[in-house]
Request: fold
Amino acid sequence: MHHWEIPSKDPDRIILTFNGDPSTKRAVTWRTDSSVNEAIAQIAIAGVSSKFTDNAITYIGLTENSILDYIKLISHY
Reply:
């Protein structure tokens, strides 16, 4: 495997897609290595504050364990 194919603790392969009604529903998926056990995403409307967390909404997601060429990874959604 190439180094860019190997997952790490940092999220990668982040994908935003439709999930139902395209005018109101979206889904986000990403992957990490097996050291990350939780799926947490935060979304906020851009504003003048430099603190992202001031307006962020936190969502707890689901995780799914997988193995790709003998490398453990976790998909989050």
Remarks:
- The chain has a mean pLDDT of 88.
- The chain has no helices and six strands.
- Residues 3-76 form one domain.
